[in-house]
Each structure stands twice: as C-alpha cells, then as structure tokens.
C-alpha cells in the first residue's frame, strides 16, 4: 500500500490542477452512515419512498418524519474527519483547486475547504415552497411537521431529491472543474448515481489521472481508476496529503 500511496502522491505533487469528487463514504468516519452497502440508509428505507421529490410533495410530513428530522439532527452534531482535513491540506499546498461533493452535510466547509461545489445541494437550509424564503434547518428540527414558513408555505430542505435537476450553477461549476483538472481524486462514492458518476469518466477522457479512495471496489475501479487506494478514507487521505507535501518540499 505504501508504494501505491507514494506513486499516487507523486501524481498529485506533479499536477497543475487537482480536484476531488466526494461521496457519503468520506463522512462515514464522522458518524454519518452511507446510503448503500453495509449499514447503508437505503437498506433500511426505500429511497423512492423518502428521497424522491414526488414522495415529498405527496406527503411532506412523512418525509420530514422518516428522513429529514433524524438526518438533520445527525448532521448538526457531526464533525469533519481526517479525510476532510486531508483535502484541506492539499488545498493549502496549492494543489487542490476544488471539491465537487455529493454530500449535503457541509463537512468540507466546516473543515476549512474554500471551494466546494454542493452538487446535491445542502441540508444546512430549508426553503418555502410558496414564497421561497430560506432559513436554517435547525429552526425546523423540532415541532409541528411539516414545518411551515410564516407565510404558511411548507418548508423543504435545500438538498436535491431524486427526480430533481442538479442546480445549474453547481452543474456548470463542476463541468468547468472536470474539464481543466489533470488529477481527480474520487473519495468515498459508489459511483452509481448520475450525473455525478459520469464526472470521473469525463475527466479521464480529458486525459486526467484518476485516483480512487474507497473501502471497496466500485464500477470505476477496474475501468477508469489509475490508482485504487483501498481502505478507510481518513487514513488514506492523511497519508496522501503528507506524502505529496514531502515530495513538494524536497522537490522530488
Ligand atoms: N472510507 C472510504 N470509503 C468508504 C468508507 C470509508 N470509511 N465507508 C464507506 N465507503 C464507501 C463505500 O464502499 C461506497 O462505495 O463509500 C461509498 C458510499 O456509497 P453511497 O452510500 O452510494 O454514497 P454516494 O456514492 O455518495 O451516493 C450518491 O446517492 O443516495 C444518493 O443523493 C445521495 O449523494 C448521494 C448519492
């Protein structure tokens, strides 16, 4: 593994522009369960029942009760882990230029990352379906469900539900980052949900080197990824950032 970390770190140290695509796996060591695989949220509840916009519009109180309230409490107390910090370190080294995250937990920003594209929106705020006023979700995690705006409209979390479009600004920012990177780190994603899962493929087509960090193999591992670093993201990202920094400082 050490040799693989060294080789991947060399790619990062020699790169002009490194970006990262992250998924739920990067926040597992912060106590937030993934969606798929062992202990995944979608093993317990059907995503089409609680995470599709039609399900929310049909019965917002039910979706608030079954998904949003618990998730909201969990995210409110979660702290960034070594994997988030590893990406901050690469940004401080002047290597990492942006993070495209599928996560709605805000942990990259909490760790200190400054350029984060929230591709699936965020759980930090809610918006009124009627007057579109935004407010922090923490105002809505207790009390009547569904929580209502002062105007009487139903409040929805500012995440992207299944069946919804990716916000245009996030989509364009992600496309621009993918088009100009020469190394893409793919950390803790099952790479099964589109259009996010297409981005490593597009980066590869543009000639970028793909470095995957995951506990398990994914559809990318034997096709797109040039390096597959198998293990917990915290330890792997810490090692990668340290090795890349050492290479930078001794000019190797
Ligand atoms: N370190 C590294 N990888 C991990 C760890 C860990 N500690 N724990 C889990 N993983 C990996 C799993 O092996 C899996 O490949 O993280 C991945 C998590 O995959 P998913 O749960 O499918 O999460 P993600 O890829 O982000 O899902 C994409 O689907 O449900 C929707 O909108 C939701 O953004 C989400 C999207």
Short description:
The protein has 252 residues and is an alpha/beta fold.
Question: Mind explaining what this structure looks like?
Answer:
Helices cover 38% and strands 18% of the residues. Helix 9 links the parallel strand 7 and strand 8. Helix 1 crosses helix 10 and helix 6 runs parallel beside helix 10. The longest helix is centred in the N-terminal third of the chain and has 18 residues. The structure holds adenosine-5-diphosphoribose (APR).
Report the principal-axis shape. elongated
Topology pattern, helix = H, strand = E: HEHHHHHEHEEEEHEHEEH
Mean pLDDT: 95
Individual helix count: 10
Biggest sheet strand line-up: 3-2-1-7-8-9
Structural class: alpha/beta
* Ligands present: adenosine-5-diphosphoribose
Q: Count of DSSP E strands?
A: 9
- Unreliable spans are none
Helix content: 25-40%
Major sheet, described briefly? 6 strands, parallel
Strand content bin: 15-25%
Indicate the radius of gyration in whole angstroms: 19 Å
Distance between the termini: 20 Å
Sequence-ordered SSE layout with sheet pairings:
Layout: H1 2-13, E1 18-22, H2 41-44, H3 47-50, H4 53-58, H5 60-77, H6 82-92, E2 96-101, H7 107-111, E3 116-118, E4 121-128, E5 134-136, E6 155-159, H8 168-180, E7 183-187, H9 199-205, E8 209-214, E9 227-230, H10 233-249
Parallel strand pairs: 1-2, 1-7, 2-3, 7-8, 8-9
Antiparallel strand pairs: 4-5, 4-6
Bound molecules: adenosine-5-diphosphoribose.
The site of adenosine-5-diphosphoribose has 24 residues, from loops.
């Amino acid at each position: 593994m050490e040799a693989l970390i060294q080789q991947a770190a060399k790619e990062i140290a020699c790169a002009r522009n490194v970006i990262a695509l992250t998924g739920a796996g990067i926040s597992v060591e912060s106590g937030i369960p993934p969606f798929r695989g062992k202990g995944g949220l979608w093993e317990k509840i059907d995503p089409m029942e609680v995470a599709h916009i039609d399900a929310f519009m049909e019965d917002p109180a039910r979706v608030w009760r079954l998904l949003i309230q618990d998730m909201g409490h969990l995210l409110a107390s979660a702290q960034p882990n070594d994997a988030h910090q590893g990406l901050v370190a690469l940004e401080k080294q002047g290597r990492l230029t942006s993070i495209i995250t599928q996560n709605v937990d805000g942990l990259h920003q909490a760790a200190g990352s400054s350029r984060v594209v929230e591709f699936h929106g965020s759980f930090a705020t809610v918006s009124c379906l009627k007057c579109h006023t935004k407010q922090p979700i923490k105002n809505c995690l207790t009390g009547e469900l569904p929580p209502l705006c002062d105007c009487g409209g139903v409040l929805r979390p500012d995440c992207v539900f299944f069946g919804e479009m990716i916000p245009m600004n996030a989509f364009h920012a992600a496309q621009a980052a993918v088009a100009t990177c020469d190394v893409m780190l793919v950390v803790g994603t099952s790479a099964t949900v589109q259009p996010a899962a297409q981005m490593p493929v597009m980066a590869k087509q543009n000639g970028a080197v793909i470095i995957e960090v995951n506990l398990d193999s994914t559809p990318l591992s034997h096709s797109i990824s040039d390096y597959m670093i198998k293990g917990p993201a915290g330890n792997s990202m810490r090692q990668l950032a340290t090795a890349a920094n050492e290479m930078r400082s001794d000019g190797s």
